[in-house]
Structure formats: C-alpha cells, structure tokens
Write a structure and sequence with these properties.
This protein is of the alpha/beta class and 248 residues long. It is built from 7 helices and 8 strands, in the order αβββαβααβαβαββα. A hairpin with a 2-residue loop joins strand 1 (34-40) and strand 2 (43-50).
C-alpha cells in the first residue's frame, strides 16, 4: 500500500470514528444553511452556516476566483462534516455577492476575509481556515495572523497552468500552521507530485481543478467526493486545536 493510499484509508477510519462519536453526542447537520450578511469595506460578504449541534470547531471555506460556494467540493463538505461535529461556514466574497464576474486583487480578497473573520469566530469555537483555489490562497496568507487553528487547501493553485516556474509554494510553506492539501490527480494548476516535499496531501485520483473525474474513471464522481470528505474529516478529528481565537 502506498503512503497516500494508507493516509486515505487512515483518514476514512478516523472519520468513521469521529462520526460515530458525534452521533452519540447528538451532532447533526443543519438541514438548510442559514445565510448571514457581513459588511466589509469591499461590500457585503455572505456566510452560509451549516451548523453541527455540539460542534467542536468551525471550518470556514472560501470559494475560488471562477465560481462560488456551489462548487462540488464545498457542497460535499458542507453536507458531510456537520454529522462529525464540525460546523461548516461557506464564505462568499463581496465581489461574488455583488454579482461581479471577475475577482479583485489578492490584497482586496485578504482584506475582506480579515474583516469578516470576527463573524466566523462568533460561535466561540476554534476556527480552521480554508477554501478552494484562490480561497485556499487567502486562508494560507492570513490564517496565522487571524488565529486560525489550521488551514485546509482544496485545489491549491500551485502555479498557473503550464507555468510551473510561477510557483506559489511559499504561501503553503509559510503558513506556520498545520496544512492539509486535497488535490486532483490531473489538476493543471499543480499535480500532487509537484508539491514541496513534506506537504501533507491527499490525492483525488483523476480529479481536475474542480474535482470532476471522467465518466469511466475509478473511483467515480460520488466515490471521489467521498474520498475527499473522509480525508478532511479524518484530518480534522486528529487536530489539536487551540482555544477559540479572539476577534481581531
């Protein structure tokens, strides 16, 4: 068994154990996400809460530059994790809430994330910062200063397609926090083997940048997303999170 396969299997087992424990504690998902508008200097942001009863942490997830919280990986995590005692907060940046099609500069994204952070801390729980693609970069750049307990990077854009010399690896290695990367095996923004040595990474076989897999792929789409959610749940269950951060 390869190291990656073993990690995936161990994560699934940890997830099942965490799910069983949460079920005993009465942790269940909110059946419908509750939306909260948060003013920022860049405009209104929006947080959609998928709340777990007896939650032990909040996983805050930002979207990418080419889409919103409807992304398949974000939806899958919001649907699966509350049953394991993790509240999932899907965060929409102001440009997306305003209906704009082009994301602003990274500096603006980071500023909006900083300003909405107190709302993510409001439940009084440890917060794990995360996101997909551009949202993962925001979480990496700001996580430590905001008091996040760890960072989840989904489809981290290690470099622009076909431009490996434009590496963004420093954003990952410079977080100063535990980081889990979940990456599609055929992601043109960086395949798993391209990441720096020592990166904790889970590969979704045949997944592209949006974790879509070919129709005849094995595992298929449903199993690929289950692999993703199991791996994230297992990683979260094994974290030793600090106390809830104080709002900046």
């Amino acid at each position: 068994m390869t190291k990656k396969a073993a990690e995936t299997e161990n994560a699934a087992g940890a997830r099942n154990a965490a799910g069983a424990e949460s079920a005993r504690d009465g942790a269940v998902a909110s059946t419908s996400g509750e939306a909260e508008t948060v003013p920022t200097s860049a405009g209104d942001a929006r947080i959609t809460w998928h709340t777990a009863r007896g939650a032990r942490c909040v996983l805050a997830l930002g979207h990418g530059a080419g889409g919103g919280i409807e992304a398949r990986d974000l939806r899958a995590l919001a649907g699966a994790l509350p049953a394991t005692g993790v509240t999932v907060a899907l965060v929409e940046q102001p440009w997306r809430v305003a209906g704009k099609k082009v994301a602003p500069a990274p500096k603006t994204l980071d500023s909006a994330w900083r300003e909405l952070w107190p709302a993510l801390c409001a439940p009084g729980l440890p917060v794990v910062a995360g996101g997909r693609s551009a949202g993962a970069r925001v979480a990496c750049r700001t996580g430590r200063e905001l008091g996040a307990g760890a960072v989840l990077a989904l489809s981290f854009p290690l470099h622009p397609p076909a431009r490996p010399e434009k590496s963004r690896a420093g954003e990952l290695t410079g977080t100063g926090l535990p980081v889990l990367v979940v990456q599609g095996g055929r992601d043109p923004f960086g395949r798993p083997a391209e990441f720096p040595e020592g990166t904790r990474i889970v590969e979704v076989p045949n997944g592209d940048h949006g974790f879509a897999v070919p129709k005849r792929a094995d595992p298929g789409q449903e199993d690929a997303l289950a692999l993703l959610t199991d791996a994230v749940a297992g990683w979260l269950s094994g974290l030793s999170l600090p106390p809830a951060p104080e709002a900046p």
